[in-house]
Amino acid sequence: MIDLLKEDLKHSEEYKDCIIKVWHDNRRKCYLAELYVPGQQAAARPDLLVLVQRHPYPDIPTAITTMKEQVDKHYTGEKIWWDQMT
Asked: Which helix (H) or strand (E) holds 50?
């Protein structure tokens, strides 16, 4: 389990209904980018987002660019279950 504190959040942005968050991980000395997509239950809970990817990156711009590429490649806009994203 990775303990990330609120003050470790360095960047957050919305992209095509998804949210990309970039955290600074002091222990690993890198940035962790997380990609959240709307969950299957979004009609009942529009605030529900599912974490589908978390990867380390050397810097914030690389993390954001790579995560946006993943969204463009995999995310179709339909609500998914967490285990449908590869």
From this structure: strand 49-57
